Amino acid sequence: MSTLSTSSAQELHPSPSARTAGGRMVVAGPMEPTYDTVLTHEALDFLATLHAEFLTERRRLLTERGPRNDAIARGDLPSHREDTRHIREDADWRAIGHAGASGLSRRRVEITGAPDGRTAVNALNSDADSWLADFEDAMSPTWSNVVLGQVNLRAAVRSRLKHVTRVGKYYEQRASRRAGAQQPTIVVRPRGLHMPEAHLRYVDRNGSETSAAASLVDFALYFFHNAEELAARGSGIYFCIPKVESAAEARWWNRLFLRAQELLGLEPGTLRATVLIETLSAAIEMEEIVWELREHCAGLHAGRWDYIFSMTKAFRHDRSFLLPDRKEITMELPFLESYAQRIIDVSHRRGIHALGGMATAFPDREDPELTAVAQQGVREDKEREAAQGFDGTWVAHPNLIPVAREAFDAVLGDADHQIERIPATNGTGENGRITSADLLSRDGLPTPEDLREHVSEDGVRTNIRACIAYLDAWLSGKGALKVDHLVEDVSSVEISRAQIWQWIRRGVKMDNGRVLTTVLVDRYVAEELAITSRNPLDRFCESAELLRWGALGDELPDSFTVEAYQRFMVDRAARMPYPFAA
Question: Which intervals carry biased composition (Polar residues) (predicted)?
């Protein structure tokens, strides 16, 4: 448990708290200027109500993940459930989709980024159709980032977001540059079910205290402060739900959405949600997930790097599932092609958007040649997605918006989407439908004997650099970082460390003839640190510690974020003189 306590927080820093019949919320982090605009007594009361009603079920759902994932790792391959066959075989039902949801019909290009001031203004001033305000993979969950993200969104919804950097550069939200276009539609991505928020504490009616659920915090604060305002402006309130692993978890989110709308007196369906398909279990239960969320579901999103991490983690002990260097992993691999086809097939048959994967290339204004290469890679990726049948995609940099839009314009023309199109699939099921066996295909993967040609020392070092550079940024409060001309986020670290762990366990021989071992990786980590530019405030030592924990241990940890958050953002902060930065 965190060493932050509600008693010490109240003594040292007066903070708002809220009480409901089921319990109360207490702010255990510092209250800085503007925080009180979102951490109001009314908002905390709303948050406490949701904790009282949904926290126990969240814990149960998280407990169920372990045995299910352990069974897959032991070789019990997942398949479509017999008890939900009637849902998959009923061709008549549809989800609510984008009907009546202003700003959600056209989602051709979505830009993503953390809700910090500069990123938010740049996204809202861009030519994107929507902005994914990301509290999850693209945001470092420091206390200030969490609260200021909500402050920024509250201002953005009311079209009055401004930001001044420490060096005095001024940013202000304005109309889109694209003639006749509206401001990008805001879609908020809360943190996943697994993450805690230690700077807010829930105290139940018996006095038992626990960290708040980060997913409830991000959802509730944005919903409470903005749902009615957006409805008054003729819009709904939109979310993108990450890290869903089962239909039961989707049911939890749907019940949460219904209850939140009821508490504020809003009509069901005012809220719409797009679901990120990021895990193997979610890909297997994709249709059931849409069914459970059919009152609110507007689309499915391909979270491909997290999905690759999920597959690597699921088959970490399987010698037939070994991935090559990250740069060689493409969506043309059969198991990833099946994943993409299934997202499109399920989405369109159920009347919702299918949205493609992230373009992580990062243009460099000082290197036109490199920028041209990056843009060409993105163009080819988006042309493939549009031709496959996706209705839109997402990018991480404003300069990539025109490239992605061009690719989709060429296929969609004047249409907002291509939901009515159900492309042929090349699966092994009836009429070519994608089956669980297709999602688990090893076709196209290198064999253990051939892996030397596909795992290089440079690839291992690239993974190490991505991890230590990104973790340094993440621990310092920055959630996305350019490394080797790519935008890296949490998913980059997860797949990089999982690959290293698996390669070591499989005794992979690299292109230089050396067998990858724990000792050798540890040496590479030390060498990369030795050539890294350092400063007195950097977090590279902690980054290396986290990498060793996440990639060199006997077991592969499920996620680095909870461990890193608790150890370095909460416990470390609690040992510092109050107030603290995190």
Answer: 1-10
